[in-house]
Write a sequence for this structure.
């Protein structure tokens, strides 16, 4: 897969716009309703919906800034707590997902943080009916190890995302949906690391080993 950086950036932008359309659209609709609504109780309900949509939009933007962009600066290490707060924020908007963490290191190299966040995103998307999301990460002997497990009924995982993770998805088949996987495959390749996944009917396991700080 030899997608240029410009093409990949364009697809990631498309993915970001797609994911932000719903909460931002809800803000717009809420403002329209509020302008026409006179009943105090209904106006209060509109304010509650606006607050919820604004919070979801903010949580997603913060998440994507680090998962796709240059947030966190350009230093070698990023606090794992920063990634945890971002994932916690997204999962908080989905009461059907139970999130468990196992973090044995205070910080990870920035490429590993990006892999962790994107793995978490794939795991959340794999649980449309809810379930359990387990995230583990460790930095030891100059190597990052990350495992994310999504368990629930009828796991939803596009195998093209898996092919993009492995680097076997043809360039012409890359889309905004698979672009995040292609991005972290590039990151892993630059680190001489490896990404892999195992898919079953009731579970998806994503793993990464990334040498080097």
């Amino acid at each position: 897969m030899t997608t240029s950086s410009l093409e990949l950036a364009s697809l990631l932008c498309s993915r970001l716009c797609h994911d932000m359309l719903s909460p931002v659209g809800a803000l717009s609709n809420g403002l329209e309703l509020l302008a026409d609504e006179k009943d105090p109780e209904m106006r209060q309900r509109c304010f509650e919906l606006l607050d919820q949509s604004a919070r979801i939009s903010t949580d997603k933007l913060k998440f994507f800034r680090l998962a796709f962009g240059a947030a966190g600066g350009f230093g070698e290490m990023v606090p794992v707590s920063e990634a945890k707060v971002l994932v916690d924020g997204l999962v908080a908007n989905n009461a059907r997902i139970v999130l468990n963490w196992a973090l044995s290191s205070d910080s990870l190299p920035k490429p590993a943080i990006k892999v962790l966040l994107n793995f978490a995103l794939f795991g959340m998307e794999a649980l449309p009916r809810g379930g359990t999301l387990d995230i583990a990460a460790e930095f030891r002997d100059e190597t990052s190890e990350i495992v994310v497990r999504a368990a629930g009924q009828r796991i939803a995982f596009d195998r093209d995302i898996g092919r993009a993770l492995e680097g076997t998805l043809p360039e012409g088949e890359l889309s905004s949906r698979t672009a995040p996987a292609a991005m972290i495959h590039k990151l892993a390749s630059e680190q001489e690391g490896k990404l892999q996944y195992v898919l079953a009917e009731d579970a998806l396991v994503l793993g990464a080993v990334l040498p080097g700080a």
Notes: The radius of gyration is 18 Å.
